[in-house]
Write a structure and sequence with these properties.
single chain; globular; four-stranded mixed sheet
């Protein structure tokens, strides 16, 4: 996944609860969920946005407050 303009975001989940600052960290996020929760990359991309940002950054994840309409996949497009 080569992204032209990567926008940092916060990811909130049981296995990852920190900033994703670049494509390398995004790959790490996918790997953590694939290895430890047996989630596919596609499942991680279904994480939804939180209505509250994190220190001015978009916030996505599987936490209960992440119940917005936009998915991580849509955000990364």
């Amino acid at each position: 996944m080569a992204l032209k303009n990567f926008t940092p975001f916060w990811f909130e989940g049981i296995l990852w609860f920190k900033m994703v600052n670049n494509e390398q960290e995004l790959k790490q996020l996918f790997n953590v969920y694939e290895q430890q929760a047996n989630y596919s990359k596609e499942k991680v991309l279904t994480a939804t946005e939180c209505i509250f940002s994190y220190a001015g950054h978009p916030k996505f994840g599987f936490a209960s407050e992440c119940n917005g309409d936009r998915t991580l996949a849509q955000f990364l497009e």
